[in-house]
Amino acid sequence: MTSNQARDIIVDQINNKKSQTFIIEGSYKVGQLALASNIINNFNPSDHNNDIIWISKDTEKLIIGLPEIEIIKHNINQTPLYSKYTFFVIQDADFLNKESQNALLKIIEEPSKHSIILLLGTYHKLLPTIYSRCMSLYLAPKQATDISLGRYDLELEIEKNPDLLMTIEEIWVNYLNTLESDELEIFSNAQVFSNYPGELLLFVLESIHFMITLAHTDKKSYNNIMLSKSLKQQLNNIVSKTTSSWNYIALSNLQDLKKTILFSNSKNILAIEKFLLNNKPTI
Fold first, then answer.
1. What pLDDT is stored for residue 46 in this prediction?
2. How confident is the chain (283 residues) per 10-residue block, as mean pLDDT?
3. What's the alpha-carbon Rg for the chain, to the nearest Å?
4. Looking at the structure, do residues 124 and 241 belong to the same domain, yes or no?
5. Do residues 114 and 84 share a domain?
6. Residue of 143, 82, 86, 108 lying closest to 23 (CA atoms)
7. Does residue 145 sit within a domain?
8. Domain tally, the chain
9. Strands (DSSP E) found in 50-202
10. N or C: which end of the chain has fewer CB within 10 A?
11. In terms of residue numbers, what domain contains 31?
12. For the range 280-283, what are the long-range contacts, defined as Cβ-Cβ under 8 Å and sequence gap of 24 or more?
């Protein structure tokens, strides 16, 4: 569904006291953050931060643990200072570990009348019991027209930080070069790839294989997505030398790489090396 549709549903649920806990999911940076902010602004137009508690994963540990849930537990029964509701937003909810999910479940089962809980996710990794106690909504991307492929949150980040666009284009170039490189170069490139943020790297790899799929199946949509001239030429070169069957296998193997990078303790560089070697096209 669109972001506007999801907003209207959630606002209606809150206004009519039908639900207080929501899961907003969608692909990487599709618009979960913007939607959460939009919903909050419907009830808290002055943006009083005292009535908003925003939780995200620890950048070092890459998980959301019990200490973060304790923050919610400590504040859930407090009366909002300025607004009708206190909003508890858990960004990257997929990275709640098992202990923190079980602790959150107890809170969700008996939320205070002044609380709204928004869980923002991408990888559908929450416990079934949490899904059963929340209203779940899944956001669709906007129409893809540029390198962000319709990911609204990513578009906003690029607007604020042009260096991010440079990083994304850099990953594009490195991966397209890798597809035509020999095995010795692949080992060197794997080290380079392991230095990028994992989710951003995975998004770019998926984007490239998605574009290859479009090139083979929907030429019009492929041509409608604007890339820099050099990137499009490089991509066209790869498309002309690869097959749909190779691309589908690579996309499938990319899902395994995603699980390893995001949700295991394995070394990323080894997983990246394995993916690059196993999915090297015959060019």
1. 65
2. 95 93 97 95 74 83 87 87 89 94 93 92 95 96 95 96 96 95 87 93 96 94 94 94 93 93 84 91 76
3. 21
4. no
5. yes
6. 108
7. no
8. 2
9. 52-55, 86-90, 115-121, 135-139
10. C
11. 3-139
12. 280/179, 280/183, 280/186, 281/179, 281/238, 281/241, 281/242, 281/246, 282/246, 283/179, 283/180, 283/241, 283/242
Buried residues in 243-260 as b, exposed as e (16+ CB within 10 A): eeebbeebbeebeebbeb
At residue 209, the pLDDT reads 96
Q: Identify whether residues 22 and 119 lie together within a single domain.
A: yes
Q: What pLDDT score was predicted for residue 47?
A: 56
Is residue 59 domain-shared with residue 158, that is, in the same domain?
no
**pTM recorded for the entire structure:** 0.91
Going by their DSSP bridges, the two strands 86-90 and 115-121 should be labelled as parallel
Q: How far apart are CA 268 and CA 264, in angstroms?
A: 9
If asked whether residues 190 and 233 sit together in one domain, one would say yes
- Location of structure tokens 């098992």: 98
Q: Which residue has the tokens 């479009």?
A: 214
d(CA 178, CA 191): 12
As a residue count, the chain comes to 283
Q: For residue 37, which amino acid is it?
A: S
Query: Counting Cβ atoms within 10 Å, is residue 204 exposed (0-12), middle (13-18) or buried (19+)?
Result: buried
